[in-house]
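Researcher: Structure prediction, please.
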Amino acid sequence: MPGGHVSGGLPVGMKYDRRQGQRLYDFMLHVSEEAFRILKPGGFFLSFSQGRLYHNMAESIEDAGFEIRDMLVWERAGQAKAFTQDHFVRRMDIPDDEKERIISSLGGRKTPQVKYTRLKSCASGC
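Model: Predicted structure follows.
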């Protein structure tokens, strides 16, 4: 990868079903193997997932060669809400025709909005 950086998003179409965990595992295994390959000794890898998919993510990271040393839990109230990115574009200080061009190129993509409750470390178990 250019510059030795690994970057990516979740596979397109990830929705809740029993196969979602396996798809996340497959995706994260590839990302984790690349991260493990390029990290210098002593480097670390920080990753995030929904609570119900944590096991699949952690398993793929371990299978790539990493050791899971600690875990942070970000508890939040309720289901994460999402809204279209149009909201941000409409607030930009640019001409209306440019806004419409950008909105059209986004294709209705949505951004999650998470309600923060608290953050805790699980160094000694959760």
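Model: The chain has two domains: 1-68, 70-126.
Researcher: Thanks, that helps.
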